[in-house]
Design goal:
- By secondary structure, this protein is of the alpha/beta class.
- It folds into 2 domains: 118 residues, Response regulator (Rossmann fold, 3-Layer(aba) Sandwich); 90 residues, Arc Repressor Mutant, subunit A (Orthogonal Bundle).
- 40% of the residues lie in helices and 21% in strands.
- It is built from 8 helices and 12 strands.
- This is Winged helix-turn-helix domain-containing protein.
């Protein structure tokens, strides 16, 4: 799951990025309001963690701007401004959740997973399809109750497909989901991960829509 982290404090940002990566998130980190606005408009992220006190543009200005532009990415506001009027302003500006510093990394990860779950209309965190169950919090997969060990990228690709039943995801969309900035991506990386998933979960688990991309088995084309 690819997350945008917007935090101008270098020490805090580095710690948040490391902590979220340990929980399996792919994290891109920016430190200014204008960079945050640009990246949020790109549509490349499942969710964002947004500080309010930013250079160039205040976090609330960023949030109001992208919401006016129709950007629907879930945004969790992370800030030291924890008074009730500040929380109300953030939520009214378009924030989906609000958490005050200092933050517990486990709670931050859980809140991000909850935001993404709600954005996809899912009532609980467990994802199920064709006898396969995926637990994003535990980063575990079972098939008919039997644990299936997956590499990190395989897990992330399967999660992306299971969060989008009925949708064909292009190779570019899957690459955006799997890889943060600065990570070299082999031209056939997605195809390799799909091949490994089919070998572990069965050839019919993932369908190729020729010339378009991939989708879960049983999803209407």
């Amino acid at each position: 799951m690819r997350i945008l982290l917007v935090e101008d404090d270098v020490l805090l940002g580095d710690g948040l990025r490391a902590g979220l990566r340990q929980q399996g998130f792919t994290v891109d980190w920016v430190r200014t309001g204008d960079a945050a606005e640009r990246e949020l408009r790109s549509g490349a992220y499942a969710a964002a963690v947004l500080d309010l006190g930013l250079p160039n543009l205040d976090g609330l200005q960023v949030l109001e701007s992208v919401r006016r532009a129709g950007v629907a990415v879930p945004v969790l506001v992370l800030t030291a401004r924890d008074a009730v009027p500040d929380r109300i302003r953030g939520l009214d500006a378009g924030a989906d959740d609000y958490i005050a510093k200092p933050v517990d990394l486990g709670e931050l990860g859980a809140r991000l997973r909850a935001l993404v779950r709600r954005a996809h209309g899912q009532a609980h965190d467990l994802l199920r399809a064709s006898g396969v169950q995926l637990d994003p919090a535990a980063r575990s997969v079972t098939q008919h109750g039997v644990p299936v060990p997956l590499a990190s990228r395989e897990f992330d690709l399967l999660e992306a497909l299971m969060r989008n039943p009925g949708r064909v995801l292009t190779r570019e969309q899957l690459e955006q989901h799997l890889y943060a900035w600065g990570r070299e991506v082999e031209s056939n990386a997605v195809e390799v991960h799909v091949h490994h998933l089919r070998r572990k979960l069965g050839a019919g688990m993932i369908h190729t829509v020729r010339g378009v991309g991939y989708m879960l088995a049983g999803s209407p084309a």
